[in-house]
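quick one before i forget lol
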Amino acid sequence: MGNYTFTKKDYHTEKGYFTEGYVSSPGRVAYKMLIVPLNGFDGPFFYVKELGSGLYEVSGEGYEYQKNWKESMKSCREQIADAVRNLKLKGRLGYLFLDETGQVVRREWAKFHRGRVENEQQWFITDDDCFQCCRIIKPNNAYRPSGNKGHSFDGVYELIQVNRAGPVGTRCADKYVISHGTIYMSDYTEDQVVEYIRLYGYNDLVDFLSSYEEFCCQMVAEMIFETDWLEFTLPGSYPNYAAACKEVSRMTGIDVGNAIADEKIEYEEYKFIDKAYQVLNQPYSEAEIKANADENGYIEGVVKISLADLIEADFENFLDYISVRLINSVCLSDIQYKIVGAGSDDVVLVHVSGQAEIEE
């Protein structure tokens, strides 16, 4: 944690926070940076500095997390929930403009109303990683234990997001699709809700509710949609991530913004031996393993391996290493591997396949 700074074309945020992606070097691990407002006497605020040419430097409390790593993502979501909860409590968000010496020369305050009923028909971004957008059709009533495991949530949420059309290493991996649908939370029992939130690192509803409070129903809807996105996939595909994002932008009216910029950072150019593959920037999450594995639990993908790590490892450690790179676990059996290309510096691209242990 500390103060972090982003460069933006627009310093305003309806979400109440900013995120950006980058790839570490030399490990090539995909990360996201999150900045939330600083707390002041008059309410939460960001520092802003005008850079010229239509650009602004925005500073706030910063956090770093590894994309699709369960515990890291859980921590990030909790930090976002805390920030948004504080903003709703205060009802406004400030932008304090600094001069070259760091002195505040202007204050701008904006009403913060993310998630309120009068804003329910507006689309807003909920996940920059897949350009997921949400529209609240019916806001949720306060959570109430049902006793008989019946309907504990009753919100209705329309969601849309971009997904890779097929598993990494397949002929569909270089195409993208759009999932679009409506989640009716009254259709899900309490037991079913618990099954979904466990995929994201929460043990029970008590743990989950303490993190999200009034946002809990919306967060569950997002988790359901992310997990079951195949059920909501629209016909047709797009040649690249940017094209799919632009279509989502057309459907929702939301500026594609950093979604495409992040894609340029995360997907590097590689040299392949025979044919091109989409390369994983991080291991599959539990939800992605369930979505991409075949009926027997077999999953495949192209991972990046450092030559230094490869040279230092014996055969068994090497198999564990590529297993972790693919599914974030050593529990991959019947492993097959093949070098398919190379990246910059000492990076080797390896196609890995095997059988993953999938919890029902």
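fyi Residues 70-90 form the longest helix (21 residues).
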